[in-house]
């Protein structure tokens, strides 16, 4: 005997990934749906709390010829990170001093920060960086790729300043959604220094194969980076006019 | 003026009213982040004890944010109704709690004093109240509003149907809308949070909802939650706009960060009224609020987040809204850390708004980086149901695929109706029965493939 009252409009699911036509038992969700939701939430929670494996990521990046550096924010652990966004934005003082001793960035500084989803960086950062390297012409051998632990977007400002970069590009794990635990965000800031406002940045969000795919994201990033360097600015005055149609048709 | 109290040998001193309020506020991460929270449990209780002795009249003489600097303060002071205040004008904050809880302080009495209560008085007394007090008093407040149906009748609960889609795909939105209607949701409003802010995209959303409403003759109102200035433009362009939406906050500076002012809201309200689209009433504004927004925008002026939130209700009150919604757990754990803090904040916001005479609903919600889960939402939902909440959100499976957070579902609304015997807005309820979606009792009927609404699906796709 089927205990569940099914909904005869399940064909509407073709139009949306929303949880529609779930059926009901009495007024309530069927067991299978409660479990599906619980699993998705568990994955999103794990994404927030799972630490990024910096050692593995670093060795992968170095194997692909990227010059890696590693820093930490002022937030010593995840609970502090969640409660004190100001600490996650600040570069730990010894790290800042150490970065200043490094060879300066030739043009770009790339920052990979765990943010709110380590798996976003673990899965998507390397393929995205590789595609971007193919598009964007710069002194890649000397371009620093800085791995930032417990970092928020603005940690790139201190990193970019210490490395005297013209443009800092921060790739960061976004706040996980129930159906998107591994969404990656990219933020560009021209002439970074601590105290920048969000309106001075450009953002590309929801980068993941099921969201904005790598190729499109790399294309947008290439466009925005070139424009920022040419116009000597980033933020609301820099519009994303990259013609995605060209990429899609290629 | 300093406020003081002694506990044993320790003298606690609070330099001004806003510091006293902040230290008396139940613990929450946003006040710690702002550096305003009590340093110890004892200091928090000392502040509550000192606050209990503050005469209500003090709130009329000591502005938390200076009158000259802030138009919300000016609104609060200039609109204060001395006659309505008279019956409670001799009370202290502690007395006000006692008075509110009296059996003799009934719905009629509360409605009469509402214009005499300022947001700061409401916030102050809430800080002395336990969760059960917040529930008991809010439940006594009656706030009834109308547009195409009636919201807020005793024993009733409405639902905002929120059929969001990450790319504003009209068929995707229509699919969630239908799902919600079949589950008996949508009497508060059908409100879409769009991903885009382009006018042509938004126009299609307003038109689709209006076509569905007219085709099926649904006594409901629709809304697209885009910036208020965009809605004014759209009204000028002939969009079929029922409710005008805006996020608001409790200080001029925070509202400025949202790109609004009282003047802009007034213009929007007049534009919405001019359309005369309501059939049973003309409450045509929908506001959203939430603790933490003022700190987030750097506009809190050293005032704690719950008091800032209550001040937003003065802004809402000015425009006789159909609905006000506190989006309680959306902002994240740096403002409300866990289920306990979210639950407390939801009850406070509902109480303060109802006491001030607003049709308060709640987006019972959380993000994935907060220490909360659906069990916490069940608790808050049930408590707010007991408190007489005007409306909640209905989102397919409680999972908003556009805004990436979890709220309450169509099923959750059915649960609350079932446990507490809550009915839908009567006009909408009658429509559901007429459409053979519900029994006369309000219970859902079994929907077969031959159902009228399902056979009209091509129309809905066509509307798209």
TrEMBL record, chain A:
GO terms assigned for molecular function: cobalamin binding; ethanolamine ammonia-lyase activity
Chief site of localization: other
Catalytic activity: ethanolamine = acetaldehyde + NH4(+)
InterPro entries: EutC (IPR009246), EutC_C (IPR042251), EutC_N (IPR042255)
Keywords: Bacterial microcompartment, Cobalamin, Cobalt, Lyase
Locations listed in the record: Bacterial microcompartment
Database matches in Gene3D superfamilies: Ethanolamine ammonia-lyase light chain (EutC) (3.40.50.11240), Ethanolamine ammonia-lyase light chain (EutC), N-terminal domain (1.10.30.40)
Gene Ontology terms: biological process: amino acid metabolic process; ethanolamine catabolic process
Enzyme class: lyase
Enzyme Commission number, as recorded: 4.3.1.7
Amino-acid positions noted as binding adenosylcob(III)alamin in the UniProt annotation, renumbered to this chain: 153, 174, 203
Any GO CC annotation of this UniProt entry: ethanolamine ammonia-lyase complex
Pathway entry: Amine and polyamine degradation; ethanolamine degradation
Pfam families per record: EutC
Cofactor note: Binds between the large and small subunits.
Keyword Transit peptide: no
Cofactor dependency: adenosylcob(III)alamin
Subunit structure: The basic unit is a heterodimer which dimerizes to form tetramers. The heterotetramers trimerize; 6 large subunits form a core ring with 6 small subunits projecting outwards.
Functional note: Catalyzes the deamination of various vicinal amino-alcohols to oxo compounds. Allows this organism to utilize ethanolamine as the sole source of nitrogen and carbon in the presence of external vitamin B12.
HAMAP family associated with the record: EutC
Record-stated family: Belongs to the EutC family.
Listed name of the protein: Ethanolamine ammonia-lyase small subunit
Species, as recorded: Pseudomonas fluvialis
Automatic annotation (TrEMBL), chain B:
Root EC class: lyase
PANTHER family assigned to the protein according to its UniProt record, in alphabetical order: ETHANOLAMINE AMMONIA-LYASE HEAVY CHAIN, ETHANOLAMINE AMMONIA-LYASE LARGE SUBUNIT
Protein name, per record: Ethanolamine ammonia-lyase large subunit
Bilayer-spanning residue ranges: none
Family: Belongs to the EutB family.
Record-linked InterPro entries: Aldolase_TIM, EutB, EutB_dom_2_sf, EutB_N_sf
Assigned EC number: 4.3.1.7
Cofactors (names): adenosylcob(III)alamin
Example of a GO MF term: ethanolamine ammonia-lyase activity
Cofactor stoichiometry and binding remark: Binds between the large and small subunits.
Assembly behavior: The basic unit is a heterodimer which dimerizes to form tetramers. The heterotetramers trimerize; 6 large subunits form a core ring with 6 small subunits projecting outwards.
Keywords for this protein: Bacterial microcompartment, Cobalamin, Cobalt, Lyase
Keyword NAD: no
Residue positions binding adenosylcob(III)alamin: 194, 246, 296, 402
GO cellular component, as recorded: cytosol; ethanolamine ammonia-lyase complex; ethanolamine degradation polyhedral organelle
Gene: eutB
Species per Swiss-Prot/TrEMBL record: Pseudomonas fluvialis
Entry's localization field: Bacterial microcompartment
Protein residues bound to substrate: 160-162, 193, 288, 363
Keyword Lyase: yes
Cited function: Catalyzes the deamination of various vicinal amino-alcohols to oxo compounds. Allows this organism to utilize ethanolamine as the sole source of nitrogen and carbon in the presence of vitamin B12.
Domain of life: Bacteria
Pathway linked to the protein: Amine and polyamine degradation; ethanolamine degradation
GO biological process, one term: ethanolamine catabolic process
């Amino acid at each position: 005997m089927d205990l569940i009252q099914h909904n005869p409009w399940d064909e509407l699911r073709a139009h949306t990934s929303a949880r529609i036509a779930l059926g009901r038992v009495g007024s309530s969700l069927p067991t299978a749906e409660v479990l599906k939701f619980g699993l998705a939430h568990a994955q999103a929670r794990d994404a927030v709390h799972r630490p990024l494996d910096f050692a593995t990521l670093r060795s992968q990046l170095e194997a692909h010829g990227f010059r890696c550096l590693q820093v930490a924010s002022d937030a010593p652990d995840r609970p502090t990170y969640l409660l004190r966004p100001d600490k996650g934005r600040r570069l730990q003082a010894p790290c800042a001093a150490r970065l200043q001793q490094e060879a300066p960035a030739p043009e770009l500084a790339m920052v990979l920060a765990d943010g709110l989803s380590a798996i976003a960086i673990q899965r998507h950062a390397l393929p995205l960086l590789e595609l971007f390297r193919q598009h964007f012409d710069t002194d890649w051998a000397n371009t620093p790729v800085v791995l930032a632990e417990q970092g928020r977007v603005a940690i790139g400002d201190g990193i970019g300043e210490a490395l005297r970069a013209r443009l800092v590009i921060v790739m960061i794990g976004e706040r996980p959604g129930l159906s998107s635990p591994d969404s990656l965000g990219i933020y560009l800031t021209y002439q970074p220094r601590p105290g920048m406002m969000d309106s001075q940045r450009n953002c590309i969000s929801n980068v993941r194969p099921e969201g904005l795919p790598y190729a499109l994201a790399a294309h947008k990033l290439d466009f925005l980076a070139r424009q920022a360097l040419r116009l000597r600015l980033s933020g609301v005055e820099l519009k994303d006019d990259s013609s995605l149609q060209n990429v899609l048709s290629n | 003026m300093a406020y003081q109290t002694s506990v044993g040998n320790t003298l606690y001193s609070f330099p001004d009213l806003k510091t006293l309020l902040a230290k008396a506020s139940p613990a929450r991460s946003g006040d710690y982040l702002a550096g305003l929270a009590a340093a110890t449990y004892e200091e928090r209780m000392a502040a509550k004890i000192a606050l209990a002795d503050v005469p209500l009249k003090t709130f009329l003489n000591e502005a938390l944010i200076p009158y000259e600097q802030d138009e919300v303060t000016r609104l609060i002071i200039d609109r204060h109704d001395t006659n309505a205040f008279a019956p409670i004008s001799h009370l202290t904050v502690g007395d006000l709690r006692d008075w509110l809880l009296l059996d003799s302080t009934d719905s009629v009495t509360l409605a009469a004093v509402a214009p005499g209560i300022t947001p700061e008085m409401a916030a102050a007394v809430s800080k002395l109240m336990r969760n059960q007090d917040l529930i008991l008093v809010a439940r006594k407040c009656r706030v009834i509003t109308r547009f195409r149906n009636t919201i807020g009748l005793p024993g009733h609960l409405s639902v905002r149907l929120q059929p969001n889609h990450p790319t504003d795909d009209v068929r995707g939105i229509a699919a969630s809308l239908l799902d919600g209607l079949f589950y008996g949701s949508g009497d508060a409003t059908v409100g879409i949070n769009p991903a885009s802010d382009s006018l042509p995209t938004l126009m299609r959303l307003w038109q689709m909802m209006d076509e569905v409403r007219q085709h099926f003759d649904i006594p409901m109102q629709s809304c697209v939650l885009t910036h208020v200035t965009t809605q004014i433009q759209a009204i000028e362009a002939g969009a079929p706009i029922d409710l005008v939406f805006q996020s608001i906050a409790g200080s001029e500076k925070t509202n400025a960060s949202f790109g609004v002012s009282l003047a802009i809201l007034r213009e929007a309200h007049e534009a919405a009224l001019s359309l005369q689209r309501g059939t049973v009433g003309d409450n045509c504004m929908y506001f959203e609020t939430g603790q933490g927004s003022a700190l987030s925008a750097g506009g809190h002026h050293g005032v704690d987040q719950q008091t800032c939130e209550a001040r937003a209700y003065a802004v809402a009150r000015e425009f006789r809204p159909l609905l006000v919604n506190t989006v309680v757990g959306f902002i994240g754990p740096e403002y409300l850390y866990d289920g306990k803090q979210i639950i407390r904040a939801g009850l406070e916001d509902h109480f303060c708004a109802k006491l001030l005479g607003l049709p308060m609903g709640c987006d019972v919600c959380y993000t994935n980086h907060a220490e909360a889960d659906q069990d916490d939402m069940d608790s808050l939902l049930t408590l707010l149901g007991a408190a007489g909440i005007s409306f909640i959100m209905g989102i397919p499976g409680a999972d908003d695929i556009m805004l990436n957070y979890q709220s309450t579902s169509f099923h959750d609304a059915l649960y609350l109706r079932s446990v507490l015997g809550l009915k839908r807005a009567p006009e909408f309820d009658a429509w559901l029965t007429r459409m053979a979606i519900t029994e006369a009792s309000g219970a859902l009927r079994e929907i077969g493939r031959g159902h009228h609404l399902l056979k009209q699906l091509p129309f809905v796709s066509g509307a798209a």
